[in-house]
Hints:
The chain is α/β, with parallel strands linked by helices. The strands form five sheets. The chain has a five-stranded parallel β-sheet with strand order 3-2-1-7-18, with helices on one face. A five-stranded parallel β-sheet has the order 9-16-10-11-12, with helices on one face.
Amino acid sequence: MTAMPVSDLDRPHDLVGIGIGPFNLSLAALADGVPGGVDAAFFEQRPRFSWHPGLMIEGTTLQVPFLADLVTLADPASPWSFLSYLRFRERLFPFYFAEKFHIHRAEYDAYCRWVGDNLPGLHFGHQIDAVRWNPERALFEVDFTQLDAEGEAEALGRTYARNIVLGVGTEPYVPEPLRPLADAPAVPVIHSADYLDHRERLLAAEHITVVGSGQSGAEIFLDLLRARPAGAERLHWLGRTEAFAPMEYSKLGLEHFTPDYTRYFHALPEQTRDRLVPRQWQLHKGIDAATIAAIHDELYRRSLHGGWPDAVLTPGVGVRTAGRVATTRVELHLEHLQQGTRSRLTTDAVVLATGYRERPVGRMLAGLDPYLRRDSSGRSRIDSEFRMVLDESVTGSVYVQNAETHHHGVGAPDLGLAAWRGASILNSLTGTEPYPMPRRTAFTSFGLEQREAPRIPGQTIRLTPLVQGI
C-alpha cells in the first residue's frame, strides 16, 4: 500500500483514477509515457492488483491475443508491454518457442501485477468515498479512506483533480430468484467469480448444477466434469441462450472490436444502439470453440465403453424461482423458453456463471449528480472521447472505462480496445496527440457514409490543453 505524502494531497493532479483494474492500469502505463508528463494518481481499495482470482482455472487462456496487453496497440515501444515483462523475467526465448498467441490467464494476471508493483502513481489500499465539483477552485474534490493490511479504515484524506477517470469495473451478478439462496451458508450457491475458493466444497456435493452458458460456465463445467468419476458425474448445465454457442471469432466478425466500429456505433441513435447490443451477445458472450471441443471430447471419452456420462446439458432454460429443500438442497424451478414447459430440478450445489454488471457509482458520485446529463433511460451520456457529459459550468472532465457499452458498443469491456481507449483519453486530456490515432482500423465499412459522431446537447469541445507544460 502506498500512502500519499501530505504535500501531494493539496496539489491538484491533472488526473485522478478511481479503480485499478486492467483498463485504468493501461491508462496509467500510457500516461507514464506522455512527453512532458501527466500528473496522475490512481486509487484502488484492494491491497494489490488482482484479476478474477476465482477463475484462474489451470490451463485457461485469454480470449484475446497477447498483443491486447496494457499498452502495445497504442505504444509498442512502451516499457510496460507484455514482451517487456517477458524480457524482465528472462522468458522471451521460452515464449518464442512456445508459439502462444493466446497466453494463459494466470500469466496475464502476473504481467499486470508486475506493472502494478512497479508503475509510479498507483495507490493501493485507498477507498474512494466521494467525488464533488468545487466551483470556487474549479477542481474535483476526491475524498478517500486509507485502509490497513486487513482492509480496515486507517485514515481519512482528500485530494484534488482537474480531471477524473472512473475504472471501477463490474461486480458479480446474481439473478433475483437466487439471491436469497446465495446468502444461505448451508447450501453452496456460488458465483463463478468465487469458484476456486469453493471448488473442494462443490466437488464434495452429490449433484452440482452450473447456470450460465458463457465462457465461465463452460470452463467450470469442464473442470467439474474432469474431476468427477466416470459414470457418476452428477452434473447439470443450464443456459438461457438457445444453444451452447461458440464465440464469434471470424476475422471480419472481430472487426466489431475496432475503433472504426466503436465510432460507428457511437454515432447511431440511442434507440438503435439499445436494440443492437442484446442481439450481439455471440460477439462477446459465447464460448471459445476450443473449450466447446474439450467438453465434447471429455464427454465422448466417457462413453467409449458403452453408456452415457451422467451429465445433462440443456440450453434455452431460465430459472424462474428457487427454494431450499430441508436445509441442504436447492430446488430450481425451470422454464424452457421455446417449449413453454416447466419443471423442477433438485440439486446439492449451484454455480452461477451469470456474468457481471457495472458496479454502481451513484453514491460515490452523488455530489456530481446535479451536473450530469442523462439519456432517455436515465443513463449517463458519454461523448465520443469517453467523457461523461456534464453541465457547461464544470470545466473538468470525468472519463469512464468499461461503463459506456450503451454509447460505445460491445467493445467497451474488451481488453483489445484498452490501449486505444486509454490513448484517446490522454489525447483528449492533454489537448495534443501524444498517441497518434490510426485513421482506419477495419476492412469493413459499417455505414453507407462516414460521418463524425453527433454532438450531444450540453457537450463542450475543449481544444486548449488541460495539462501544463504539454
